[in-house]
Design goal:
Oligomer: single chain
Number of strands: 7
Helix content: under 10%
Largest sheet: 4 strands, antiparallel
CATH class: Mainly Beta
Low-confidence stretches: none
Strand content: over 45%
Distance between the termini: 6 Å
Strand order of the largest sheet: 1-7-3-4
Order of helices and strands: EEEEEEE
Mean pLDDT: 92
Number of helices: 0
Radius of gyration: 13 Å
CATH architecture: Sandwich
Length: 87
């Protein structure tokens, strides 16, 4: 088994939502670590005025599920940065 870093950009979002992400390296026994960052139109990350949080992360076979919250009234561009470890 190996450790894989995967950056996932999911476009615009706001509020609280659950984001399933398919991954051939994820298994129900994987360790998943995730963070979220706001990104500009060029895809560059920055710390803006909105609070963005990752609440829960659950591995599944072939997938992981991330519960995200973006506290802003309008949709914002974000990127989920994910570390999947099977070591």
């Amino acid at each position: 088994m190996s450790t894989v870093i995967r950056r996932v950009f999911n476009g615009n979002g706001r509020g609280s939502f659950v984001q399933p992400i398919n991954s051939p390296v994820a298994f129900k026994g994987s360790t998943i670590v995730a963070s979220i960052t706001e990104v500009d139109a060029n895809g560059d990350s920055f710390v803006g005025s909105a609070r963005m949080t990752v609440h829960n992360v659950a591995p599944r076979d072939g997938q992981y599920v991330i519960w995200v919250n973006i506290e802003w009234p309008d949709p914002l561009r974000y990127r989920l940065n994910v570390l999947v470890s099977n070591d």
